[in-house]
Each structure stands twice: as structure tokens, then as C-alpha cells.
Amino acid sequence: MAPRGNLTGFDPRKLAAATGSPANDPWRRYEAWRYSGPFSRWNRFKGAFPGLGIGTAAFIVYVAAEAFFFPADKSHGHGDSHH
After folding, report:
1. Within-domain flag for 54
2. Could you say which DSSP state residue 37 is in?
3. What one-character DSSP code corresponds to residue 24?
4. Does 49 map to a domain?
């Protein structure tokens, strides 16, 4: 059985090819603020995880301090007897 044709004549591929930003878009200047300055992609990403850098640095300092100043006591393991 052959595929049926589109009854409406609408072709989404032709619509996608026809739509696009025109060369003289009157709204381009008014929309430019959305993608520059504090709204640029980098600035939006940078503000997505507030405190992540400080938290990571604090965790590294904590782990290093625990390893150097409070070494694990190797004499008490699970298999050792406490007599």
C-alpha cells in the first residue's frame, strides 16, 4: 500500500526552510540584550551553581586537614580482639 499524501498540503520541512531571521530584522536590536552582558551564556552558567567553588575548596581543605592532623589509627581493625 502506498503512503497517503498529506491532505492539507502542509510540509514542515518547507516551513523550516522558509522561516529564519530576515536580513533586516527590526527586533534584532531590541532582543540583543538577552544574549549579552549579565545574560550571556557564560554568566548564566556561572550563576547556576552558587557556592560550588567555595564548597569544593572547603571540602578539599577539610580532607587534607583530616589526613595530616588526624591520621587513622591502624591498630583497631574489625578482626582485632580487644582483650
Report:
1. yes
2. G
3. T
4. yes
